[in-house]
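Researcher: Predict the fold of Cytosolic beta-glucosidase.
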Amino acid sequence: MKLLVVLSLVIVAIQGANVRHQRQFPDDFLFGAATAAYQIEGAWNEDGKGENIWDHMIHTNPNVIRDVTNGDVAADSYHNYKRDVEMMRELGLDAYRFSLSWPRILPTGMANEVNPAGIAFYNNYIDEMLKYNITPMVTLYHWDLPQKLQDLGGFANPLISDWFEDYARVVFENFGDRVKMFITFNEPREICYQGYGGDLKAPILNSTAMGTYLCGKHLLIAHAKAYHMYNKEFKPTQGGQCGITISVNWFGPATDSAEDQMAAEIKRQGEWGIYAHPIFSSEGGFPKEFSERVAEKSAQQGYRRSRLPEFTEEEKTLVKGASDFFGVNHYTARLVSATLYKEAVPVPSLLDDMDVGHNAPDDWATSASSWLVLAPNSIFNALKHLKERYNNPNFYVTENGWSTYYETGLMDDGRVTYYRASMESLLNCLDDGINLKGYMAWSLMDNFEWMQGYVERFGLYQVDFSDPARTRTPRKSAFVYKHIIKHRAVDYEYEPESLVMTIDEGH
Ligand SMILES: *[C@@H]1O[C@H](CO)[C@@H](O)[C@H](O)[C@H]1NC(C)=O
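Model: Structure tokens for Cytosolic beta-glucosidase follow.
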């Protein structure tokens, strides 16, 4: 009897191990890599491109960037786009997510003047991908607003929704015959909280009381107008999809107490629920508990109305359901406490409105970025929550990646560990029935990491920023990712024989 039990345990263990190795991604699962215009393109003032808010901020105040660099040249993809596509082929990517520079297409931000050189550049980039069966996934806005629109208030001005709709129409008219996946905005939280409510991204407005919320509401309306316009004017003939990407890191409770569970919920609502709920929930509008908290604090602070603006019923209806998929940028997680780990924050502000603390346990591996730690199974935790809350829409992980320092060089084992952990978490999502359709690694190559300049590197390919040719060299993680894509599975034993990259047949 004992022997039988032991034997069956051994069999179960062997089966378990096999399942772990056999778990596969479906053939139509879209594997890709991602970048953003300002971070890679360079050519900041070439061929008629207008000034964006990063050009303006850094040229006016270079010291806001950690290593006093900028994106004037970056990885120079404007001149190296063919090499970029060659890298996609080397990796065997199914898809490539990149963004369009609004002021490269519309130098003043407005649609009265379209820059033909800007259109030509993106046509070339797209056509080069399509030549090799790589699906372009195009983000319309990844943080580089035309400065002329910022001068008019940017996302604090409700008219941004009309300006964005006009820009989006130019994009769909010019590229929608070949591009079938559009993302309107990349990461509303980073645009609105970091750029308007704080001083962590351009335009560093630091308008802590209301900046985040005004921007959030206007951005959501801009997204919805562009979405409906695509649906009405372009989808019938072009047949593509239009969605949005929201940064969704995981926030679980530090303990099982009711207080900590509520704290985690408030954190989730304040960090990403205020952008996700109006679009993906069945009731629409900003999430309830967080709205009540801001209203209460606003009243205590002497405001005559909540600092979180209401949506009219018409606006609520416009925004609700306005997305064909949910793009999730996911990197990390924190444990949230109602009482512990709190830091001094400005009052009033989003952080004060949430009024919770968070922590990362010491045994979660750390990266080159202070905010980025490897949390166990966190893609699954985030997507499982979104699935349940928002009725399992189609999901794409549109960014996920790991930072190293330049000094780490090509043998980036920390990134390899991170990507393999991500793959296991993605497979857990698929096993759970989450409608997850694809995954974009951040990033195809090293690039200008915003306020961190070139200090923190996220590339599968290293870029030599001291070389005028901006030579790209694959890291170990590039080979590991290529192996995963090719076999649709994670092989923990795999080690590249050398770091010499070639293009496989059929790519
Ligand atoms: C933003 O505001 C906070 C306080 O509200 C202040 O500590 C910080 O220095 C400000 N940042 C800038 C760039 O002015």
